[in-house]
Amino acid sequence: MPTRARGVFAMSDYARRTAFPDAVLQRLATVAEIDPAVPITDFRLAGEHLATADFLITGWGSPLVDVNVLDAAPNLRLVAHAAGSVKHHLTADVWQRGITVSSAADANAEPVAEYTRAMIMLACKRALPQANAYRTAGWPLDDQRVDAGYVERTIGVVGASRIGRRVIELLRPWNVRVLVSDPYCSPDQVRALGAQQANLDRLCAESDVVTVHAPELPETRHLIDDRLLSLMRDSSVLINTARGSLVDTEALLAHCETGRISAILDVTDPEPLPPGHRLFELPNVTITPHLAGAQGTEIALLGHYAVDEVIRFVAQEPLHGTVAFEDLARGA
């Protein structure tokens, strides 16, 4: 590899501008040559750029990196993804050719985990339904105050994923009990997180808040189904910041319509929900438009992470976000 590595951006113009503002580009320029004015969205038009590329920085809107792209990029040694999942834009050929793959999923996890912690607090405080009631019914009398508070609550974390583990870390200063359900996490690993292991039935039955952080896989579709929702205790809250397909939407709607449980959804199935969907009308359901992950100024966190990986790569140091091919099957 030459002293100064050559790179190519492969992402939408929006992703390039938001993830790589001037401050991030300046850091990248200290170790590599890359043209920020040429974010590639179609590799068929990028032959001259690929021919000399030592690394690709991919992101939202990246075209597929397949064998044809690899043939056109004989010097390629690194794909640094300035976003989360790499499942949908890299084929197995990338790993088969010994090319290192890195993801900025750790950087994207922080905003999601912080959003989740905030929503857990709002859920425990019953803040959102109380705000609605205040607007329509006025100031509550003392005997109308609900049991709202986060101290000594039980929080159920479905999936000890990257984000799930970070949520658990963020909850440590609180006086709460954390239950974890994850088939890939051993009892010792759960204890090391400061939590208790539980199967899904127990977790749903004992938790005041159930927060979902499992990957979207065929076997996790409708993981939270009518039976598990039936086990959730009265006044409990379901939070989903993972993928909409993990929750059976129709079953959730039926349970929330009774008012027995509530939901805070940053993702839905389908996504987006069609206008006029009944979930929008329920006072005990809050839906946000998939904004828990990096937004606005947070998106630059993804660019900084990818640049850090390129810097380590050029220095021949171990990368922090390496994605192994064998982990793809159970990753997000």
List key phrases describing it.
332 residues, seven-stranded parallel β-sheet, five-stranded parallel β-sheet
How would you describe the overall organization of this protein?
This protein has 332 residues and is an alpha/beta fold. Helix content is 36%, strand content 14%. It has 14 helices and twelve strands. The strands form two sheets. The protein has a seven-stranded parallel beta sheet, sandwiched between helices. Helix 13 links the parallel strand 11 (262-265) and strand 12. Helix 2 (22-29) runs parallel beside helix 14 (300-314) and helix 6 (105-124) packs across helix 8 (162-171). The longest helix is centred in the middle third of the chain and has 20 residues, at 105-124. The relative contact order is 0.14.
Mean pLDDT figure = 95
> How does the overall form come out from the CA principal axes?
elongated
Number of DSSP strand runs: 12
The main sheet comes to: 7 strands, parallel
Sheet-strand content, in percent, reads: 5-15%
Q: Outline the low-pLDDT stretches.
A: none
Radius of gyration: 22 Å
